[in-house]
Automatic annotation (TrEMBL):
<dbReference type="Pfam" id="PF03167">
    <property type="entry name" value="UDG"/>
</dbReference>
<keyword id="KW-0326">Glycosidase</keyword>
<dbReference type="GO" id="GO:0006285">
    <property type="term" value="P:base-excision repair, AP site formation"/>
</dbReference>
<dbReference type="GO" id="GO:0008263">
    <property type="term" value="F:pyrimidine-specific mismatch base pair DNA N-glycosylase activity"/>
</dbReference>
<keyword id="KW-0234">DNA repair</keyword>
<dbReference type="InterPro" id="IPR036895">
    <property type="entry name" value="Uracil-DNA_glycosylase-like_sf"/>
</dbReference>
<feature type="domain" description="Uracil-DNA glycosylase-like">
    <location>
        <begin position="5"/>
        <end position="153"/>
    </location>
</feature>
<keyword id="KW-0227">DNA damage</keyword>
<dbReference type="InterPro" id="IPR005122">
    <property type="entry name" value="Uracil-DNA_glycosylase-like"/>
</dbReference>
<protein>
    <submittedName>
        <fullName>G/U mismatch-specific DNA glycosylase</fullName>
        <ecNumber>3.2.2.28</ecNumber>
    </submittedName>
</protein>
<keyword id="KW-0378">Hydrolase</keyword>
<dbReference type="GO" id="GO:0004844">
    <property type="term" value="F:uracil DNA N-glycosylase activity"/>
</dbReference>
<dbReference type="InterPro" id="IPR015637">
    <property type="entry name" value="MUG/TDG"/>
</dbReference>
Length: 170
């Protein structure tokens, strides 16, 4: 199964970073394509998009100044199938992407993604005190997976901080 494309360009407002594509995403070639994943609903409900996008429209986020990538490009059924080597290589490649494209905010879609990237253990939700790449803001949000046990409204509340943060730094 092929990796799905990154959506990157210079000076993004927000770069969303997931663990890795689901099998469904690998089959369709689109980010957050699993019907149980709530990413698209969360973005809309949090005020980040003007409507609820479909996974097949993932490339259109670039028009809003948002990009998408993953720490690991190989599609899997679950994140626990990702190897240490894949995380290590992905961490290096992700840092290179962030350095090259200089997004204002990097939103990690899941604490585990940020733990793998930053090597930090204790991580609060939201803006991080220190960013891994200078000149960007690291922001940690809950995973949008349907397996996450947080209430959807609580997840959306965390994502609602992103438009406010953009306003503060613009």
């Amino acid at each position: 199964m092929n990796p799905i494309p990154d959506y990157l360009q210079n000076d993004l407002s927000i770069l969303f970073v997931g663990f890795n594509p689901s099998i469904r995403s690998g089959e369709t070639g689109h980010h957050f394509a699993n019907p149980n994943n709530r990413f698209w609903k969360i973005l809309f409900e949090a005020g980040l998009t003007p409507r609820k996008f479909q996974a097949s429209e993932d490339y259109k986020l670039l028009e809003l100044g948002y990009g998408m990538t993953n720490i690991v490009s190989r599609p899997t059924k679950a994140a626990d199938e990702i190897t240490k080597e894949e995380y290590e290589n992905g961490r290096i490649m992700l840092r290179e992407k962030i350095t090259k494209f200089s997004p204002k905010i990097v939103c990690f879609v899941g604490k585990g993604v940020y733990q793998q990237y930053s090597k930090k253990k204790s991580i609060p939700w939201g803006r991080q005190d220190e960013s891994v790449v200078l000149g960007t803001i690291d922001f940690v949000a809950p995973s949008s997976s349907g397996l996450v046990r947080m209430k959807l409204e609580d997840i959306i509340d965390i994502y609602r901080k992103l438009p406010k943060l953009l306003d503060e730094i613009s």
